[in-house]
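Researcher: Please translate sequence to structure tokens.
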Amino acid sequence: MKKYIYPLLALGLMTACVEDEGNYNYKHLNVIEIEGIEESYAPLAYMDNVKISPVLSGSLAGTDLSNYEYQWHLCINTHASHIVISTEKDLDWPADVSPGFYSLYFTVKDRATGLEKQQRTALNVGSPFLRGFLVLGDDMETGQVRLDMLCMPQERDTAYAESVITDPIGLVGAREMVFSGYGSSKEDDQYLWLLSDHYSHRLTFGETISFIDEFNEAGLVELEIPHQSPMHVRDVFPRQGSKNAINGTVRNRSITYRGLILDDAIVFCNVSYGGYGGAINRYSAVSNSYFKPYPKAFIQPTILFNFGNLVNSLFYDADSQCFVRLLGSYTTYVEKVTDYYPGGTWNLEIGEDNRTMVYGENGLNLYNGDNPVYILAKDNDADNYYIMYFSGHYSNLTRRYYPTKSPLYTVNKAVAVDIDKASHYMFSSNRLVLLYSVDNRLYQYDYTRGTCISHEFDGDITYLEAEYSSQCSVKDYFVATYNDATGKGMIYKMEVPDTANAGFSFLEGQQWETTLKVTDIEWKWPN
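Model: Translation complete:
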């Protein structure tokens, strides 16, 4: 390409010879410089304050800020709307917006000239609700259910957040939560169930928590048999998984294909798209007689579940007082779990010994899939209590479940004081002890040694349960209390010590005050 140079210099010399007789008055303007604002900030929604202190200087005013006006405004959805959040120079703003990406603008106006200087920064608002413990309970002031959360963002301090449901639905009397699964990458497949004696509500389980629908309205299950109406969910199985204690990997990835235990039926369904009408709580494929199921399934949480091997789940026939299991992946009935190794001081079919199961719990064995099932039972004709447990494995070769029983432990009621009056029970998978609560006192009964210790709290115990999922620890458990006089409660994370004489172990820094009367706590972490 040719370059042409025009003789403008000569022209300039010629014009410079012309005398300029004009009268000009030049006025210098104050040029504002803004420093101290980073390119982006990453607060957590509803938890953090965005704090920014800009450093200003003017070409004429220097550090004199007396003639400036300020405005901070938040830009949402690519300039779709602007919200003024402050008119002060230094910003201290609570990030009370939904998680997402925003633009934040700082504008400085010089009152003398009307000139403005503006600087932008990115605001990447994260969710504090992705990781932590959901806390369900009764708000005694409103009389309604409230869902709080112990928020535990990674590399951040724990914070207690109240009322994390984004659209409250006025529930009363909820007693339990069930996490339906996180195996799918779709947020639509992540659900949280709030259960009570009268309803089963489903909520989303993503960055925010919001109400979807009631179980019956969702139409997830349509039974072919006469059933209790409305239907209420008592358990969803398998529940969320826990990490392998050896390498930290998740061993039980929950999935959308689940089993549901209703008041009078056990069914399988897809928690996103719908259910299957065949109830399996019967002993023949052609039987019209369905037993009442115990409201919990007994599963093996360290095994990788899929729809086919839900056969590893055990159930309990509350009519005949015996454990049952499926015969295969696609069968529509169950069989009793019998003693393949007869003998011992108790019958695996508890009803055959004229006993009733008072409480049953699925324990955890970290190193193999033979997880124990713990049982507290009592005589039907006497006031005697017993503790026993069994574990077993399913053989693909014989298609049988082979249980191994513990000895029968007779409860010494003179030592295990008021065990028949307990409001909550919990078996430990760390040591052979049973924890139970009566009013404000927590008991730890060592049924192999026949010893018992207790601890008195400031309020009545409203919640007691083992906590495996967050740390894959067989030691950890939660205790929640509430004091009617003060209107406040406490949440304690504790552990069962390895040794028999260590007493009660409160974990350091794991105590939180709440205004809820807590009824359930559930770990939440989608990864």
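Researcher: Any highlights?
Model: Residues 72 and 106 are 5 Å apart (CA to CA).
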